[in-house]
Amino acid sequence: MANLASTYQNQGRWKEAESLEVQVMETSKRVLGEEHPDTLTSMANLAHTWKSQARLGDALSLGRLRYGHARSGSS
Predict the structure, then answer these.
(1) Domain segments of the chain: what residues?
(2) CB of 73 within 8 A of CB of 33?
(3) What whole-number percentage of the chain has pLDDT above 90?
(4) Cα–Cα dist 71/57, whole Å
(5) Helices 14-32 & 37-52, crossing angle to 10 degrees?
(6) pLDDT per residue as tens digits for the range 11-42
(7) pTM, whole model, 2 decimals?
(8) Which PANTHER family does the annotation name (predicted)?
(9) What is the per-residue DSSP string for 19-40?
Protein backbone atom coordinates (compact mmCIF):
# COMPACT_ATOMS: atom_id res chain seq x y z
CA MET A 1 0.00 0.00 0.00
CA ALA A 2 2.87 2.37 0.76
CA ASN A 3 4.21 1.96 -2.77
CA LEU A 4 0.80 2.72 -4.26
CA ALA A 5 0.50 5.78 -2.01
CA SER A 6 3.90 6.94 -3.25
CA THR A 7 2.74 6.51 -6.84
CA TYR A 8 -0.35 8.60 -6.08
CA GLN A 9 1.91 11.27 -4.54
CA ASN A 10 4.04 11.37 -7.67
CA GLN A 11 0.90 11.82 -9.77
CA GLY A 12 -0.43 14.60 -7.55
CA ARG A 13 -3.36 12.43 -6.44
CA TRP A 14 -3.10 13.74 -2.88
CA LYS A 15 -6.42 12.54 -1.43
CA GLU A 16 -5.84 8.98 -2.61
CA ALA A 17 -2.27 9.06 -1.31
CA GLU A 18 -3.47 10.43 2.02
CA SER A 19 -6.10 7.72 2.43
CA LEU A 20 -3.58 4.94 1.89
CA GLU A 21 -0.92 6.60 4.03
CA VAL A 22 -3.30 6.90 6.96
CA GLN A 23 -4.10 3.19 6.64
CA VAL A 24 -0.41 2.27 6.45
CA MET A 25 0.47 4.45 9.43
CA GLU A 26 -2.35 3.13 11.62
CA THR A 27 -1.57 -0.49 10.75
CA SER A 28 2.13 0.05 11.36
CA LYS A 29 1.45 1.65 14.75
CA ARG A 30 -0.78 -1.25 15.77
CA VAL A 31 1.50 -4.05 14.50
CA LEU A 32 5.01 -2.63 14.94
CA GLY A 33 4.61 0.12 17.53
CA GLU A 34 4.87 3.90 17.36
CA GLU A 35 8.68 4.03 17.55
CA HIS A 36 9.42 1.44 14.86
CA PRO A 37 11.38 2.85 11.90
CA ASP A 38 8.70 1.75 9.41
CA THR A 39 6.03 3.55 11.44
CA LEU A 40 8.17 6.68 11.57
CA THR A 41 8.63 6.50 7.79
CA SER A 42 4.88 6.20 7.25
CA MET A 43 4.36 9.25 9.47
CA ALA A 44 6.89 11.21 7.42
CA ASN A 45 5.17 10.18 4.19
CA LEU A 46 1.78 11.36 5.46
CA ALA A 47 3.29 14.63 6.70
CA HIS A 48 4.80 15.18 3.24
CA THR A 49 1.42 14.63 1.60
CA TRP A 50 -0.23 17.09 3.99
CA LYS A 51 2.51 19.64 3.31
CA SER A 52 1.91 19.22 -0.42
CA GLN A 53 -1.80 19.94 0.17
CA ALA A 54 -0.87 23.14 2.07
CA ARG A 55 -2.05 21.52 5.32
CA LEU A 56 1.00 22.89 7.06
CA GLY A 57 -0.39 22.75 10.60
CA ASP A 58 -1.24 19.06 10.26
CA ALA A 59 2.11 18.31 8.65
CA LEU A 60 4.01 20.15 11.37
CA SER A 61 2.09 18.45 14.18
CA LEU A 62 2.72 15.00 12.75
CA GLY A 63 6.35 15.85 12.07
CA ARG A 64 6.84 16.89 15.68
CA LEU A 65 5.16 13.72 16.92
CA ARG A 66 7.38 11.66 14.64
CA TYR A 67 10.49 13.46 15.84
CA GLY A 68 9.53 12.81 19.46
CA HIS A 69 9.08 9.09 18.79
CA ALA A 70 12.35 8.93 16.87
CA ARG A 71 14.23 10.60 19.72
CA SER A 72 12.73 8.39 22.41
CA GLY A 73 13.41 5.28 20.33
CA SER A 74 17.07 6.16 19.90
CA SER A 75 17.89 6.45 23.59
Answers:
(1) 2-73
(2) no
(3) 71
(4) 21
(5) 160
(6) 999 999 999 999 999 999 999 999 999 999 99
(7) 0.83
(8) AAA+ ATPASE DOMAIN-CONTAINING PROTEIN-RELATED (PTHR46082:SF11), ATP/GTP-BINDING PROTEIN-RELATED (PTHR46082)
(9) HHHHHHHHHHHHHH-TTSHHHH
